[in-house]
Specification:
Layout lengths: L2 H12 L8 H18 L34
């Protein structure tokens, strides 16, 4: 299925046209669905590992580029 076909299937399912479901709204809709899948399905293909250093005066640590969901921190 192509991206264009996916867009059309979503519009058909929701019974709205491009005036209501603009490409910006539709892209956000698809992205949120992808994030939901990443959260709900614990797949090894979506795992990334990274290390960070703690700095005494900084109460935050950096996050890896492209981070979607934090499963755990050690």
């Amino acid at each position: 299925m192509t991206y264009t076909e996916l867009q059309q299937k979503i519009k058909d399912y929701t019974e709205v046209d491009a005036n209501v479901f603009t490409s910006t709204i539709l892209d956000g809709f698809i992205e949120n669905a992808e994030f939901r899948i990443f959260r709900d399905i614990d797949s090894d293909s979506n795992r990334r590992y990274d290390t960070a250093n703690l700095i005494t005066s900084d109460r935050f640590i950096g996050r890896p580029a492209g981070l979607l969901v934090v499963r755990s921190a050690q």
